[in-house]
Amino acid sequence: MKIDLRTAKNRFFPNPSFEMIYSEAMANALDANASALHIDISIDSFDNPDSLTIQIQDNGEGFLDENYSRFCSLMNAVDKSHKGLGRLVYLKYFSTIEFESIFQKNQKFKKRVFTFNEKFDGEKKDQELDGANSTGASLLFKSFCNEQLKTYDNVVPGAIKTYLVNYFLPRLYTIKQSGKEFELTISLRTQKENKDKNFVNSEEGFSLNEL
User: Fold this and answer.
1) How far apart are CA 106 and CA 184, in angstroms?
2) What distance in Å separates the CA atoms of residue 103 and residue 67, rounded to the nearest whole number?
3) Of 39, 130, 184, 204, which residue is least crowded by CB atoms under 10 Å?
4) What is the pTM of this model?
5) What is the DSSP string of 133-188?
6) How many Cα atoms are found within 13 Å in the side-chain-facing hemisphere of 177?
7) CA nearest to 91, candidates 2, 12, 187
8) Which H or E run contains 107?
């Protein structure tokens, strides 16, 4: 059964905050047992959101077959703590999200590439990789499709760091208690800075040692 993603995103997320893009991506990275997450933001100027691109990378398990199958089916969540709808938030702000994932299957590394948009039908391209020795996922958000960015905090690394750490604080503390590691880095590149809003070329980092 096919679902109209344009209708679904508006029905389930009529007015989502921009920050939900980051929290959804980080939640997926943590679910994939990632120990590192990198968010790289590029925008010419704050008042030119059409130039905005965001790349989010993690070193998790990648899009395994089971994970990809759930991704292709709305509300097909793995447990009660997940709703299986979060990726719809991406389409409220970007019309194109390019996914690239490296995962392991039958002791071989594979790369899986697909584009998520309103016409997404599950199509993907897989290929075996020779010489690969690590897994992970990369999401590239392109073609901003909302009217505007509401606040500088949407793209300022310090504000994003504070939001994500507060949002995931219990989960991050549990990860630390288990003896595992996790680090977060967020960078911003812009051609037109605004120092009064902390909208400057910068990078913020976080590790579990800060808890």
Assistant:
1) 30
2) 11
3) 130
4) 0.92
5) ---EEEEEEEEE-SS----GGGT-HHHHHHHHHHHTHHHHHHHHHTT---EEEEEE
6) 6
7) 12
8) none
